[in-house]
Design a protein that fits this description.
80% helix, 90 residues, 2 helices, mainly alpha, 0% strand
Length: 90
Amino acid sequence: MSREYAPAHGSDDNRADVAATAAATAAIVASDIARIKEDIGEIKAALKEQGETYLSRVEFDPVKKLVYGLVGLILTAVVVALVGLVVKVV
């Protein structure tokens, strides 16, 4: 008795399609990685070009706190002055 067995994972045409799709996907991923590497290189060059003029978030934090404090103080003074005007009139 002779038995014919079907391929376990599909025909050879399906395997070829899967292989072609995998190759195309690999090519797309490789080109994306190349573009990402170029972008990183541009960012590094821009950071080197800026040199010492670049402020990190840690260095900027005290300035930010000072400015927020002064703005809060000015706004509080304005609100107190307006309340003083309203209370004085009544």
